[in-house]
Automatic annotation (TrEMBL):
Pfam families: FAD_binding_3, Oxidored_FMN. Residues 742-783 are annotated as: Disordered. Residues 394-729 form the NADH:flavin oxidoreductase/NADH oxidase N-terminal domain. PANTHER family: BLR3436 PROTEIN, NADPH DEHYDROGENASE C23G7.10C-RELATED. Residues 4-327 form the FAD-binding domain. SUPFAM superfamilies: FAD/NAD(P)-binding domain (SSF51905), FMN-linked oxidoreductases (SSF51395). This is Bifunctional salicylyl-CoA 5-hydroxylase/oxidoreductase. It comes from the Bacteria.
Length: 783
């Protein structure tokens, strides 16, 4: 087979070595435009898993690399004159230049034709003259550009600038420095890569860069040239870090990181490898790692599959899930550093934990395994900050306004569609009662509607008749009598999303008969299949406001501990907030302030009748997941407005505002919105923030709470899968909590008759390395 490799970096060279090893008859040519001793940057980092694969594939390469490694276990976070050290992380790094030399030597030994200082032929010509073309030509890939219609690439550039430098100071750990400068917050990421040097990246938000370096930064630098004027200022800013040691440049100039994604990695007999196909932010150190893992996979697939097309398909099928996962983690890390300034109020202990868990790959439990002493010190700090005893973060008490909860777990509102004429029945008593008995600090009802016309479906509950009030009072009294949990109600009006079938009969589908008229801020249907709503008049707005007030008064008489106003998911109050659904031209539409007017009027009216010693909270959709709609900035403004009006908590959900939404689902995918609102609004107004959305493990809950990204976590489908999830989470963490006396015998699992080991411990189902307890989650189930 005739194979042409474009690009002589680690990905291209390593692939050539492996392909030749597995297929000695292959004729392999590597085209590299630079000289053999040209290299940009300094060090590269590998995980133990990647090194294991390299060792298995080519022991000679692994042995040569091993002689060069700098190894360390610790991560040091330097913040506010405090150094927090977390051990057990196990890194290996080496000089990028030495890695290339090793791979070049291996190519020579195997007779691979590596053509330095040679630009590859036109990609189309190369594809025509080769059986396989491997494009390993980096982030600015010419091959990818030539076949862009097939690869369909995109590059997302964000809001930070960085510069890559070296030093002759040998760090003794992976180092993060947070620099509070006159220009703003900057951060240094650094690690040793050999016996005589370290590499580091200085990064900062674009606004900070403009103030600090914008006036002096060099422009128009050629290949190999460095920005010496900027480097001189960096010597001054980082003088305390390097303490007289040299700063070294190597093609060091300011850049913005671009995340490369391609819808396809294959075009006929051309395949993308490494940075040509995908990039991951340097803060998780995965660029070279991913590239060499790509090379391993592609060489193996070529060897195992009977044809090139089948090999390329197998390669992409194998590698894409791994790359997608890494890019999600890298994106979370990128955004964390991009928003670093919002965390600089945190104490050093919390800040260090927040930084270490920023990508969500390292978690609370994971840190316990790596460094138990460090994890214990965090637990002690958190307990001391609350004046409480040491406990897993999720089991620390918390207050929402004047309401104290025994733990930070909330059973999220979940529509059950099982009421008759708006009256909750035996099902609701068992459903909500079982969740309260299961150990959560608070149980929330599904959305309770303020009128018959405000229901989503005929099966939705209400609080607009005496019969409904009596039924709810019975449920509240059961929860108060039999459990330590609190119970809150979510109060709302369906708006344009009303008069639809029960979820299992067709989500958001109109009723086949018996439809009632729906209303909204503007006459815009939720989807082409739904009714066009009536645009509400100002007089009608007053009537609906009064319905909310009457329902709140009934809820107070029923004894609910908390009331949440539903201003999310495209229901009536939510649809006033979004410019996609509110196109009014009067004082209730147009500007963000006008769009907030009616929801705030309802909030104030409800607050006036809701008991002063019981909290009033709000659920919002922090993004519409659609261009032109609300996003994070608007969500902060909306949360702030409600906080200023006295909201005791903001429950941060997302989406479901327009049917055309394009959400980015994933583990804990909504928590970045809660994180920002908690750190920009919650701490300023004393408003608690509740995170929700695909949170299913107690490890994730502990991580979110301890990092200060939320005050509480609401879990929905997790509690459908396991109503006693909180009790089981306590048992799995060996933390004592009070079980219902009737269930006390279940605190320990039955004896199995084993005598050859310890008694089995009750634990949760595990999936993908994380505890989980939920049925398969489908986006269309979220309502």
């Amino acid at each position: 087979m005739r194979i042409s490799v474009v690009g002589g970096g680690p990905a291209g060279l390593y692939f050539a070595v492996l392909a030749k090893q597995l297929g000695p008859d292959h004729e392999i040519t590597v085209w590299e435009r630079n000289a053999p001793d040209d290299t940009f940057g300094f060090g590269v980092v590998f995980s133990d898993e990647t090194l294991g694969g390299i060792e298995h594939a080519d022991a000679a390469v692994h042995e040569a690399m091993s002689r060069e490694f700098a190894r360390w276990d610790d991560i040091d976070v330097h913040y506010r004159d405090t150094v927090s050290t977390s051990g057990g992380h196990g890194f290996a790094a080496m000089s990028r230049k030495r890695l290339l030399a090793i791979l070049q030597q291996r190519c020579r030994e195997m007779g691979i034709d590596v053509r330095f200082r040679s630009t590859a032929p036109d990609p189309a010509e190369l594809a025509a003259s080769s059986d396989l073309v491997v494009a390993a030509d980096g982030v600015n890939s010419a091959v990818r550009t030539a076949f862009a219609d097939s690869f369909r690439p995109s590059v997302e550039t964000r809001q930070c600038r960085y510069i890559w430098l070296g030093t002759d100071l040998v760090f003794d750990a992976f180092k993060f420095y947070v620099l509070e400068t006159p220009h703003g917050i900057m951060q240094v990421h650094g690690y040793p890569y050999g016996r005589d040097g370290s590499t580091f990246i200085l990064e900062m938000h674009e606004d900070v860069w403009q103030r600090a370096f914008g006036p002096i930064a060099a422009t128009g630098l050629g290949p190999g040239e460095s920005d010496e004027r900027s480097i001189e200022l960096i010597r001054e800013l980082c003088g305390d870090i390097f303490d007289g040691h040299q700063l070294l440049a190597n093609n060091s100039k300011w850049a913005t990181f671009g995340t490369v994604r391609c819808e396809s990695w294959v075009h006929d007999n051309v395949v993308l490898l490494g940075d040509a196909a995908h990039t991951a932010h340097f803060s998780i150190g995965s660029g070279t790692k991913l590239a060499m893992e790509d090379a391993l996979a592609l060489a193996a697939c070529l060897h195992e599959q009977p044809s090139v097309p089948e090999a390329l398909a197998a390669y992409e099928e194998e590698r894409r899930p791994v790359v997608n996962s890494t890019q999600r983690a890298a994106q979370a890390s990128l955004e964390w550093f991009e928003n670093l300034a919002q965390y600089t109020h945190q104490e050093p202990e919390q800040f260090a934990f927040n930084l270490l868990t920023r990508s969500r790959r390292v978690t609370y439990d994971n840190l316990k395994l790596r460094d138990r002493e460090f994890a214990a010190s965090l637990d002690q700090w958190f307990a001391d900050s609350l004046g409480a005893s040491v406990a897993p973060p999720m089991f620390q008490p918390v207050r929402i306004g004047s309401l104290e909860l025994p733990n930070r777990i909330v059973v999220s509102p979940m529509d059950m569609y099982s009421s008759v004429d708006g009256v909750p029945g035996e099902f609701h008593l068992v459903h909500l009662g079982s969740k309260a008995l299961g150990g959560a600090g608070m149980v929330m009802t599904e959305m309770i509607c303020v009128s018959a016309e405000g229901r989503i479906t005929p099966g939705c509950p209400g609080l607009y008749t005496a019969e409904q009030e009596t039924a709810w009072k019975r449920i509240v009294e059961f929860v108060h009598r039999e459990t330590p949990a609190k119970i809150g109600l979510q109060l709302g009006h369906s708006g344009r999303k009303g008069s639809t079938k029960l979820m299992w009969d067709g989500i958001d589908d109109p009723l086949p008969e018996g439809n009632w008229e729906v209303c909204a801020p503007s006459a815009l249907p939720y989807s082409p299949n739904n009714q066009t709503p009536r645009e509400l008049s100002v007089a009608e707005l007053g009537e609906i406001r009064d319905q909310f007030v009457a329902a709140a008064e009934a809820a107070a008489r029923a004894g609910f501990d908390l009331l949440e106003l539903h201003c999310a998911h495209g229901y009536l109050l939510s649809s006033f907030l979004s410019p996609l659904t509110n196109q009014r031209t009067d004082s209730y539409g147009g500007s963000p302030e006008n769009r907030l007017r009616f929801p705030l009027e309802v909030f104030d009216a409800v607050r006036a009748v809701w008991p002063a010693d019981r909290p009033l909270t709000v659920r919002i959709s922090a993004t519409d997941w659609f261009e032109g709609g609300n996003d994070s900035d608007e969500a902060v403004a909306i949360a702030q407005a409600f906080a200023e009006h006295g909201a005791a908590a903001i429950d941060v959900s997302t989406g479901q505002v327009v049917s055309e939404e394009q959400p980015k689902f994933g583990r804990s995918y909504q928590t970045p919105y809660a994180d920002r609102i908690r750190n920009e609004v919650g701490r300023r107004y004393g408003t608690a923030v509740i995170a929700v959305g695909a949170i299913s493990s107690y490890d994730d809950v502990n991580s979110l709470i301890l990092a200060g990204r939320a005050d509480l976590c609401a879990l929905g489908r997790t509690h459908l899968f396991n109503p006693q999830w909180t009790l089981h989470a306590a048992a799995a963490q060996e933390y004592p909590v009070a079980w219902p006396k009737q269930w006390a015998a279940g605190k320990r699992p039955p004896q199995t008759g084993r005598t050859d080991g310890p008694e089995p411990r009750l634990d949760l189902v595990r999936t993908g390395g994380h505890q989980t307890a939920h049925a398969r989650w489908r986006p269309e189930d979220a309502r």
